[in-house]
Design brief:
By secondary structure, the protein is of the alpha/beta class. 32% of the residues lie in helices and 13% in strands.
Length: 310
C-alpha cells in the first residue's frame, strides 16, 4: 500500500464554535483565588495533561487560573485560554502564591483540591490523570481543539484516505518507541509494544469490521514497517510530520485507535469524537519497577474506563 498521497485534496471545514460552557472554563477571572502553573519542559502530550487538569482543578475548586508561560501547547489551540499573560500583577501573585506538588505522576491526587480558602496556589507538576477533569470531559475535548491550519493539514490526509478506501473503518495506530527503547529508560521500567501486541489488537478490529484500514504513525517507521504486518493490504504507514500536532490530529480523526505507550497516544485517542474503541498495551510499564509505583492499581486513574487492555 503506497504511502505517497496526493496533496491536491482540499481540507474540509472542521471548525467548531466554542460553547458557553467551554468559554466559562477557559476564561480566567482574576477576581477569584488563583491557581498558577508553569508548563514543564515536557512535550505535547504532557502539556495537554497539565492544561486540562489545571482547568479541571480550577473548575472543581471554583478558582481562576494563570499560565505564566505558553509551553508547546497554547500557541496551537483554536480556543486558547482567555487571560492577560502580560499582567505584572498576576505574575506577582504567582510569585507569592503557596506551592503544592502532586504526590504521584500518573494517578489522581485529591489533596491538590484541598486548598485554603482565598489563597493563591502554584501547583506542580504533570497531573497525568483524567480524573482531574472527569466532570468536564466534553468541554476539555473542545478546549484542546487545534487551530484551523493544523486541522486542515490533517484533514487533507484523512480525506484522501477516505476517498481511496471508501466505506472503510480507519483505525489509527500510534507506536511510540524512540527514547523508550533505550536501555537507560528501560531500567526504570519503561516498555515498548512487542509485535505480538499489534497482531492481537489488529485481529480484534479485523474481526469486528468487514473493511478496515490501519493508519500507522510513530517515531520508528522502519521498526513499524518490519513488525506491523498487513492482511490483504490493510495497513498504511505514514511518515511523521514536522509538526507533532498535525500527527496527533490525524490520529484523532480516525474512527478507532490502537495506542502503545506515552501521553501523545493517550491524547490522540481521547480527542477522537463519539464513542471510539481504544485498545492499549496492558503491560506498558515493567511490574515492580520504579515507574510502576507512579500509577494507581491497573492504571485506573490514567487509562479511561472504557478503553480495552491487551
Amino acid at each position: 500500500m503506497s504511502t505517497k498521497l496526493d496533496n491536491s485534496t482540499k481540507a474540509n471545514d472542521t471548525s467548531l464554535h466554542p460553547s458557553e460552557a467551554l468559554q466559562s472554563i477557559i476564561t480566567s477571572d482574576p477576581g477569584k483565588p488563583m491557581i498558577c502553573h508553569h508548563f514543564t519542559p515536557g512535550r505535547l502530550g504532557n502539556h495537554l495533561f497539565e492544561y486540562a487538569s489545571i482547568l479541571g482543578i480550577a473548575r472543581t475548586t471554583n478558582r481562576s487560573f494563570f499560565f505564566p508561560n505558553n509551553g508547546q501547547l497554547l500557541g496551537n489551540l483554536k480556543y486558547p485560554p482567555v487571560q492577560n499573560r502580560t499582567s505584572a500583577q498576576l505574575k506577582a501573585r504567582c510569585k507569592s502564591a503557596k506551592k503544592k506538588w502532586e504526590k504521584y505522576l500518573c494517578r489522581y491526587d485529591n489533596h491538590l483540591l484541598d486548598l485554603e480558602k482565598g489563597k493563591d496556589y502554584n501547583l506542580f507538576d504533570y497531573f497525568q490523570s483524567w480524573v482531574y477533569f472527569d466532570g468536564i470531559q466534553e468541554e476539555i475535548r473542545q478546549a484542546v481543539t487545534f487551530s484551523d491550519e493544523i486541522v486542515q493539514s490533517a484533514t487533507v490526509v484523512i480525506s484522501r484516505l477516505k476517498t481511496a478506501y471508501p466505506n472503510t473503518t480507519l483505525v489509527g495506530i500510534h507506536n511510540r518507541r524512540g527514547d523508550l527503547a533505550k536501555k537507560a529508560l528501560r531500567r526504570h521500567g519503561y516498555l515498548t509494544a512487542p509485535p505480538e501486541f499489534f497482531k492481537k489488537s489488529m485481529t480484534y478490529f479485523r474481526e469486528r469490521f468487514s473493511r478496515v484500514l490501519f493508519v500507522v504513525l510513530g517515531e520508528d517507521s522502519l521498526w513499524s514497517a518490519e513488525n506491523i504486518h498487513p492482511v490483504n493490504d490493510d495497513v498504511i504507514f505514514l511518515e511523521p510530520n514536522s509538526s507533532p500536532t498535525v500527527d496527533m490530529q490525524i490520529l484523532s480523526m480516525t474512527d478507532h485507535m490502537i495506542r502503545t505507550v506515552g501521553t501523545f497516544g493517550w491524547w490522540a485517542a481521547f480527542k477522537i469524537p463519539g464513542r471510539p474503541t481504544v485498545v492499549y498495551l496492558k503491560d506498558f510499564v515493567k511490574k515492580g519497577s520504579m515507574l510502576s509505583k507512579l500509577y494507581s492499581a491497573n492504571a485506573q486513574d490514567y487509562m479511561l474506563p472504557n478503553w480495552i487492555a491487551m
